Amino acid sequence: MRNKVLVVDDMELNRELLAEILKDEYDIAMAENGRQALEYLENENQEIAVILMDLIMPEMDGFEVLKIMKEKSWIDKIPVLVISGESSIKVEQECFEYGVSDFIHKPFDNVLVKKRVENVVNLFQYQRGLEHKVAEQTETLREQNQILQLQAKRLRQSNDNIIDILGTVVEYRNVESGEHVKRVKGYTRIIAEELCRAFPEYGLTREKIDVIVSASALHDLGKIAIPDSILMKPGRFTPEEFNCMKAHTVRGCEIVSNIRGVWDEEYAKTGYDICRYHHERFDGRGYPDGLEGDEIPISAQIVSIADVYDALVNERVYKDAFTKEKAFQMIMNGECGVFSPKILECFKNTKERFERLAERKAENEAETE
């Protein structure tokens, strides 16, 4: 199918002359004024490869046509070559401001007209070809991105399921409420979101927070390797028993390290850090490695304070529950080990949210008893 040229000129002689020049390579459509040209474009703009147009015409001149073509964005898709007897530089500038592709002065040279039409048509066809390829590639990338997002969502769900299963295994071995993991996840999210807001230097994003919250369920994973006689002992530990209990941090990260091929690297790394380092303290007096300050991964710092708060406000086999106010003061005063000043600031800012969550969990447990 041949390209179509629309020739717009009020003089029949000029229209016929241009048609004669171009008829071997193009189909020709004609209009004797701007109004006819616009009527043709309204119905056939998809068919036009190029427009050759005079400026001075009755009923509607070329400038009015250019103005409407620009408003309708036709001029972005259909090249316009102005053929005019106007010799003013200002007129040419105005035409180019409207977006015309070329300006040819009358009287025109036949060969020059033919070559300029050929060049501009080829240029626009090449441009449209590129746009089409870009559109196709964009659509392909969009579809691939949707597939990747779906796969990522499924992978995250798989990671979460694995973590929940492991967390549940630990709770079944423990005489503590099975709600402990859920409570720690709730407190972890509160602290992490506040830390993200108050201290952006930690680079926490919604996605990273979701991973930390999910992986917080693994913090006591290593307890499945602790003997029942120690894990469920109602009284104080002997030094030897306490050393055995402390080993749950190392045992937990070893278990995480040995789980391969079922979760992604970020979950595995975060789970490892939380298992191993959630009993480290900011002053270096924690265990198992005696890390100091921000040597402790931020994920472990967050889960640590969440775990301690939950341990304080709930009854354990070796202690009664403290009031929420007492637990808050014990943490702030360093009675449960030293936490980062930034973590403590976030804890202080979210005190009421912690207490509301603790009350809600207590009510839920009471309803199930």
Structure commentary:
The structure is a single chain. By secondary structure, the chain is an alpha/beta fold. The protein has two domains: 105 residues, Response regulator (Rossmann fold, 3-Layer(aba) Sandwich); 217 residues, Hypothetical protein af1432, CATH 1.10.3210.10. Helix content is 60%, strand content 7%. The chain is built from 15 helices and five strands. A five-stranded parallel sheet has the order 2-1-3-4-5, with helices on both faces. Helix 1 links the parallel strand 1 and strand 2. The longest helix is centred in the middle third of the chain and has 64 residues. The radius of gyration is 38 Å and the shape is rod-shaped. The chain starts with a strand and ends with a helix.
Summary of the model, kept short:
This protein is 60% helix and 7% strand. The protein has 15 helices and five strands.
